[in-house]
Each structure stands twice: as structure tokens, then as C-alpha cells.
Amino acid sequence: MSAHCHDHACAPAGTHANDPRWRRALWVALVVNAGMFLVEIVGGLSAESASLLADAVDFGADAANYGLSLAVLGLAAVWSSRVAWLKGWAMVVYGAGVLLHAGWLAWQGSQPDAPTMGGIGLAALVANLAVAAMLYRFRKGDANAESVWVCSRNDALANVAIMLAALGVFGTGTAWPDLVVATVIAALGVSGGLRVLRSARHELREHAHA
């Protein structure tokens, strides 16, 4: 891309800066994720569930990610790549934080409430599937667009895991299924973040040599 590209007219091919459907999709995704962040924070604290609290942090981070994606629409493509790079690091750091939190809860010996976990996990799954379906058509854009799709996909997978953990907690009477799923969510965050980082670094190298 030309180094003097600064506006919508110069938006690089393969991005969605000029597509109003992309902007609307980001706004819907932001509102859904912010709402589910509040639901899972309250529910996770009430149920003493590591996986719900981990997913709540993820919803909050995704809401911030969608806001950042909206902020760079119409800017030079290098800014989209820079934001994707920052989001990749945020996903990696988030995953590491979840691992530490799960370890702390294991040491504390907490006992989560399975029905609350299952109910909120199901609501979160419906929300994430709706967002992922809405964003599916945009997944082949730049690294920033790809990061939005990766986040939505990972969130839906995490919600399925939380529902399975709720069944495990109910069946075993222990917290270990919840803690294992919190670890799985962390692994998804780290792997997704590394993927976004690779794409963003590739784009930044291309911008530097443009």
C-alpha cells in the first residue's frame, strides 16, 4: 500500500473500512459483549466459577477490541495492523492471567454452583454464536478483521466448554471441571493471540516496505 494513504478513498483492498455492514456488525458485537461481560461478572462471583469469571474478562476485552476496531475504521491501514498487534498481545496476557487465577482458586478450594454456570454458559453461547455468524463474512479481511473473527469463534468454543464443566461439577461435586475449563479458555486466548500477532507482524512488515 502507498505510504501516503490516509483516508477512506485509499482504503486497501481486502479491508472493510468502506462497508457500512462491517461498522454495524462491530457496534452490535460491542453492545452484546459489554452486556455479557456484566452478566458473567455477576454470575461468576455468585457461582464462584473460575470459568465464568475468565469468560467475563474475555467478554470485556472483546468489547474493548470492537471499540478499537471501530476507532481505526477509515484510518491508514497501518493503524489497523498496529491495533491488531496490540490485541494479539492482550489475548496472550489475558490467557496467562486466567491460568494464574485458576491456580489461585484451586489453592483456595472453592466450590462453584453448577446450575448458574450452565444457565449463564448457555446464554453466553447463544450471544457468541449470533456474533460469530454475523462476523463470518468479514473474516478474510486484514489482521484486525481476522482478530475480531478469531475472538468470536474462541468465545463460542469456550461457552460450550463452560456448559460441559457445569455438568462435570454437578456430576462430581468438585471444582476441577470448572478449573480445567478455565485453563482451556486460557489456552484458546493464548493460541488465538499468537495467530493474530503473526498476521499483524506480517502486515506491519509489508507497510514498512511499502
UniProtKB/TrEMBL annotation:
<dbReference type="InterPro" id="IPR050681">
    <property type="entry name" value="CDF/SLC30A"/>
</dbReference>
<protein>
    <submittedName>
        <fullName>Cation transporter</fullName>
    </submittedName>
</protein>
<feature type="transmembrane region" description="Helical">
    <location>
        <begin position="119"/>
        <end position="136"/>
    </location>
</feature>
<keyword id="KW-0472">Membrane</keyword>
<feature type="transmembrane region" description="Helical">
    <location>
        <begin position="88"/>
        <end position="107"/>
    </location>
</feature>
<feature type="transmembrane region" description="Helical">
    <location>
        <begin position="63"/>
        <end position="81"/>
    </location>
</feature>
<dbReference type="GO" id="GO:0005886">
    <property type="term" value="C:plasma membrane"/>
</dbReference>
<feature type="transmembrane region" description="Helical">
    <location>
        <begin position="179"/>
        <end position="197"/>
    </location>
</feature>
<dbReference type="Pfam" id="PF01545">
    <property type="entry name" value="Cation_efflux"/>
</dbReference>
<feature type="transmembrane region" description="Helical">
    <location>
        <begin position="156"/>
        <end position="173"/>
    </location>
</feature>
<keyword id="KW-0406">Ion transport</keyword>
<keyword id="KW-0813">Transport</keyword>
<keyword id="KW-0862">Zinc</keyword>
<feature type="domain" description="Cation efflux protein transmembrane">
    <location>
        <begin position="26"/>
        <end position="204"/>
    </location>
</feature>
<keyword id="KW-0812">Transmembrane</keyword>
<keyword id="KW-1133">Transmembrane helix</keyword>
<dbReference type="GO" id="GO:0005385">
    <property type="term" value="F:zinc ion transmembrane transporter activity"/>
</dbReference>
<feature type="transmembrane region" description="Helical">
    <location>
        <begin position="25"/>
        <end position="43"/>
    </location>
</feature>
<dbReference type="InterPro" id="IPR027469">
    <property type="entry name" value="Cation_efflux_TMD_sf"/>
</dbReference>
<dbReference type="InterPro" id="IPR058533">
    <property type="entry name" value="Cation_efflux_TM"/>
</dbReference>
<keyword id="KW-0864">Zinc transport</keyword>
